[in-house]
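Sample pair:
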Amino acid sequence: MLEADVVIVGAGAAGLSLAHRLSRRAPGEPRLSVILVDAPPGPLRPPSRTWCFWERGPGPYDAALSAVWRRLRVRTPEGRILQRDIAPLTYKMLRSDDFEDLVSRELARGDEVRRLEAAVETVDGVAGGAELLARSGEGSPLTVRARWVFDSRPLGSLPAARTTLLQHFHGWFVRTRRPVFDSGTVEFMDFRVPQPPGGLAFGYVLPTDSDRALVEYTEFSGAVLPRATYDTALRRYSEDVLGLGGFEVVATESGVIPMTDARFDRRSGPSVFRIGTAGGATRPSTGYTFSAIQRQTRAIAAALRAGRNPAPPPAHSARSRAMDAVLLRALDSGRVDGAAFFTRLFSRVPAERLLRFLDGGTRLHEDLALGLRTPVLPMLRSAVELSWLPRGWAEEPFSAEQPFSGGPFPDRDPGRP
C-alpha cells in the first residue's frame, strides 16, 4: 500500500496544474508528499486539445504557448467587422501536449510529486483521510491512502439543471498555400455562417502564422451533429466565407462542452474533493475553464501549505452563476438571438471589461452597467421564469474528457469558446 499527504486523480488541466503548484515549495513552507495518478494509455486518458485564455502580463506556462494575440475580431452576420485591442490583457493559446511536457519536466526536477500510472476504480473515505483502489496498466491491484484526495475525473452524468445547452465544435488545423491569415488577430466570433433554428453558430479562427491556423465551427444547441455535418460546415466556412483557397488539413480537434446552470458538488467525501470541470470550473455561459482551474488550484495549494482545510472554493461567484443562468435560459427559450446578443455586447462594452466579465472579474456596478446593454425585457422574463423552473436530469450519460465521435454526446476537458 502506498501513502501520501495528497493524491491527485487525473493528469489533465486540473490535475497537472495542482501538481505543478504543489511541486513549487518556497523556503520555509512545509513539505507535502504528493502522488499524481494518471490513467494508462487508452480510452481513460483524454485526447489532445487546445485551451485558450486571457491573462494580464506573463504567466507560468508562457514557455509552452503556441501563440499570443492582443486583438480580437467579431464579424456580424452581415459581415460588419468589430475589432478590439484587449490590452493590458493578452489572449493565449496552449496545446495540452505542450502543457503536459512543460509540467512534466518541472515535476521531474524535484521529488515532491510522485507519478503513478493506474486506473482508479474507487475512492472511499477512511479514518483520517481516503483510500483509493486502482489497477495498474498491467492489471495489478493497487491501494493508495492519503489525507486529502483531489479527483479531476469527468462525471458520468451532469447534475440536475434548469437549463443545459451544449457547446459542440469541430476544428481543422490548416496550412494554406499562400499567406491569408492576420497572425495578430483572433476571429473570436464570426457569425457569417448559417444560424441553426433555436441555437447559435459561429466560426472561430486562431492563426499561428500567416499560412497556419486552427479553424473551427461551433454551435450552442441541445444536441450534437453528425460528423459529416461539421465537415460540411467547416468546408463552406473555409472556402466560401474565409476564402482560404488551397489548403491542407494537418490535424483535427472536436469536443462538446456542457453549458449548464447545474450545481456541481465540489466535495464527495470528508477528505475527497472534485476539481476542474467536475468541480464546476467551466464557465456556464462561455465554456472557458482554464483560468478558473488556475484560481481553484492556487487556493487549494495555499490552504494545504498553511495547514487549512483545502476545500476548493467556488470557481465562479454566485453573481456570475446567476447571470449565466439567466443568459442560458434566454438563449434556450429563443427570447434572445444569440448572434445579435454577443455582437451587441462586443460593440457596446470595452473589450477588456467584457473579458473580465466573462472571467468573473468585474464588480457589481460593472455587471449592472453591462446588463443594461443586453435586451432587458427578455432577460428579465427569463430571470423570473427561473424562479419556478424545476431542475431536471440530463437524459444522456455525459463524459467530460472524451473526444467527439459523432454519436451520443461525449465531451472533453474544455478551455476555449
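The chain is about 25% helix and 30% strand.
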